[in-house]
Amino acid sequence: MSERKNVSRRPVADAPRRAGTPRAATRLRACVVIASLRGFDQLSAHLEPRRVVALLQEFVGAMADVAVAHRAVIDAVLGDGVLLLYGVPSPRRDDTVRAVRAAAALQRTALALRNRWLSAGETRAAALGLAVGVAAGEVLIVDLRSGGGRHNTPVGEPVRRAERLCALARDGETLVDEATYASAGARLDGELTFTPRPLATRGRELRGAYRAQARRAGLLIVPRRAADAAAPLAG
User: Fold this and answer.
1) What are 159-187's pLDDT values in tens digits?
2) What is the pLDDT confidence band of residue 13, given thresholds at 50, 70 and 90?
3) Contact, 107 vs 169, CB < 8 A?
4) What per-residue confidence (pLDDT) applies to 208?
5) How far is the C-alpha of 187 from the C-alpha of 173, rounded, in Å?
6) What CATH fold (topology level) applies to the domain 26-229?
7) Residue pLDDT, tens place only, 115-159
8) Burial, 178: exposed, middle or buried (Cβ in 10 Å; 0-12, 13-18, 19+)?
9) Of 95, 106, 33, which Cα lies nearest the Cα of 64?
10) What angle do CA 55, 61, 62 make, to 5 degrees?
11) Distance CA 163, CA 104 (A)
C-alpha cells in the first residue's frame, strides 16, 4: 500500500465556502490507520475475475462496516486495503484509543472473513493475513479538486509512518508507532497487549514500534490441505 493509486475517497467534512474562493489547507492532530490484506494477489491469480470482484467487495464492505461502527473517516479504499482517519475534521482526546480499537476490530473481521472463505472451499485463503499500521501526529488536510468535486486528503509524517508500519507488519499483525502507544497504551491496558517491536530502519525511518494484540484471539480455521500454508495468528 505504499503506492496510493486508483483511490476511491469519501470527502471529509468541510466548512462551506464561496465558489472560486481559494481553500487553505488545515493542520490537525490525527491518527492514521492503514490496513492491507496480504496474500490476496496470490489468491486472485487462481480465481475467475468475477470471483475476485466478489471477494474484494466482501472484504471492502467488511472493512467499511468496522470503520462505521468505530466512527472512523474512510479516507481511501485501495483494492485490498483501506486508510482510516481519526481526528478529522475535529480532533478528540481519545482519537488514538479509538484508532487502536478499530485496528483490533479490523483484525478480528479479517480473520472471520478468512475463516468464512476457507469454509466455503477457498483453501488458498489460508495464506491471507491483515497487516495494519497506526501512527499519530500532525497532518495537513489538503483539498484536491477533481471533476468539480472536493477530495480532502491527509499528508504528513503520520501518513508516511502508518504506511511504513503497514509494510513492515507481518500477516495478522498490528504495529503502532511510539506516539500512538504513548497516548493510548495505558488506557488500553487490560484490553490489549503492547509488545516492543524493534525495526531495522535507516536514516529518518522508524526506530521502533509496538505490536498491539487483543488479549483474546479469534478462532483460526485451517483445512488440512492448507495447513502448511497457513500463517500464525498475530492479532
Assistant:
1) 999 999 999 999 999 999 999 999 999 99
2) very low
3) no
4) 82
5) 20
6) Alpha-Beta Plaits (3.30.70)
7) 999 999 999 999 999 999 999 999 998 877 655 555 678 899 999
8) middle
9) 106
10) 90
11) 17
* In the chain, domain spans: 26-229
CA distance 4 to 217: 31
Alpha carbons within 13 A on the beta-carbon side of 84: 30
Q: Annotate the chain with three-state secondary structure.
A: CCCCCCCECCCCCCCCCCCCCCCCCEEEEEEEEEEEEECHHHHHCCCCHHHHHHHHHHHHHHHHHHHHHCCCEEEEECCCEEEEEECCCCCCCCHHHHHHHHHHHHHHHHHHHHHHHHHCCCHHHHHCEEEEEEEEEEEEEEEEEECCEEEEEEECHHHHHHHHHHHHCCCCEEEECHHHHHHHCHHHECCEEEEEEECCCCCCCCCEEEEEEECCCCCCCCCHHHHHHCCCCCC
d(CA 176, CA 185): 10
At 70, which amino acid appears?
H
Cell of 177: 508507532
Look up residue 3 and give its amino acid.
Answer: E
